[in-house]
Amino acid sequence: MENNSNPKLTPLAKELRRKMTEAERKLWYQFLKQLPVTVNRQKVIGNYIVDFYIHSSKIVIELDGEQHGEPENLARDAVRDQWLREQGLTVLRYSNYDVYRYFEDVCQDILRNLPEMPDLEIK
To answer: Which of 1, 17, 110, 113 has its CA 20 to 30 A from that of 90?
Structure first.
């Protein structure tokens, strides 16, 4: 994936980093921040801002609130995911509910998708 990010989105990405959702904060502070790889928050990729990005594995992690279940948002997410996949990225999507209710399962799923960390365990 070449760097074709829209620089006009950078100020919004910075604002979103300051105002993470509760689910984003939980996943970031209780799991992603401790990983021994670089994880970017609110990363601009093309014309999109993704919640989390792990460059070494080419993985995008998206956390979805209830509004993502609306038909128009599902369609928008499908277009976005397809474009990201065309850039060679893997998109992992979890609902905020999953982060709250099944946190360890979400973390385990992320680890399964990180080939550089096959033996890492959640503490």
So the answer is: 17
What is the reported pTM?
A: 0.85
**CATH number of the domain that residue 96 is part of:** 3.40.960.10
Domain with 49 in it? 7-112
Query: pLDDT tens digits for the chain (123 residues)?
Result: 555 777 788 877 888 888 899 999 999 999 999 999 999 999 999 999 999 999 999 999 999 886 545 567 678 889 999 999 999 999 999 999 999 999 999 999 999 999 866 555 555
Long-range contacts at 32-38 (CB < 8 A, ≥ 24 apart): 32/61, 32/110, 35/114, 35/117, 35/120, 36/117, 36/120, 37/114, 37/116, 37/117
Q: Is residue 120 part of a domain?
A: no
19 is a domain residue:
yes
Question: Which residues, listed in sequence order, are joined to residue 40 by a DSSP beta bridge?
Answer: 53
Q: What's the maximum distance between 2 C-alpha atoms anywhere in the chain?
A: 39
Cα–Cα distance measured from residue 80 to residue 54, given in angstroms and rounded to the nearest whole number: 17
Number of domains observed in the structure of the chain = 1
Q: Is residue 123 assigned to a domain?
A: no
